[in-house]
Amino acid sequence: MAVTPTFFDFGEILNIDLATEHIDHPIEVVAVVLAVLFCDGSASLKFNSKEGASFNMLRIGTMNFGKHPVKRLYLSNAAQAGKTAQILVTELEDITIQSAPIAGSAILVTAAAVKYDARQADQDVTEIENEAIRDTAAHTSDIIAAGAHRTFTFIFANGCNEIVSIQLQGSHDGATFINIGDPTSVAATSSEYQTLTEAWHSFRCVSTAASSPASGSLLIEAIRRS
Asked: What Cα–Cα distance (Å) separates residue 69 from each residue in 3, 21, 63, 78, 117?
């Protein structure tokens, strides 16, 4: 049979073989609550009347009809080999039903096709300056866009043999930059960092050595976290 009912203490489970085509196929039920437990194909349901609205089974989830239980379902689907669906119907009004996401549910994944978990937000590290500074002129780093990221850490690794002052700047349009906070003074051959969660379009750094370095280079990396 294309629709096979299974009865249990709390209601009835309808196992549907979607390999068989149905057009307004009637199914007798008494449904105060209806839940689509599983569906890996495409199908639709109408309630009580073939002339009623058609509901996509992939979007139904759970429906509670309260004091007006549904007495008949009308099932429609194209023939889909190997596809099935499972519907639970019950006369119980106070019942909690929780099922795994059905086919067609949206699941966020990273670029590496890994399921997104907000507890393990994605991040990237970008080098915005790596320069052997040999003067006291102001050196401007590359610009990095904030994008969809919400927290930022800037690592200032001063490999020069002189102190370097680094001013972090932000822009609202990617063209006009203003200073964010005070400059960070980084001692020779040491590292410092600066973090922020402010909403900016993009960032850059302006670095100035106190005296002309004779050796080493300045590395600035930006860590962006979603």
From this structure: 20, 27, 10, 27, 39
Residue 39 has which token pair? Answer: 């569906």
Measured distance CA(168)–CA(196) in Å, rounded:
10
Whether 97 and 194 have beta carbons less than 8 Å apart is answered as no
**Across 149-160, average pLDDT:** 92
What are the two backbone dihedrals, phi and then psi, of residue 39, each rounded to the nearest 5 degrees? Answer: -165, 115
Contact 25, 3 (CB under 8 A): yes
Architecture of domain 3-90: Sandwich (2.60)
C-beta separation of 143 from 174 below 8 A: yes
Return the CATH class of domain 119-225. mainly beta
Q: Whats the size of the chain, residue-wise?
A: 226
Same CATH topology for 3-90 and 119-225: the answer is: yes
Predicted TM-score of the model (pTM):
0.49
Question: Does residue 102 register a pLDDT over 50?
Answer: no
182 exposure class (CB count in 10 Å sphere: 0-12, 13-18, 19+): exposed
Q: Give mean pLDDT, residues 169-175.
A: 92
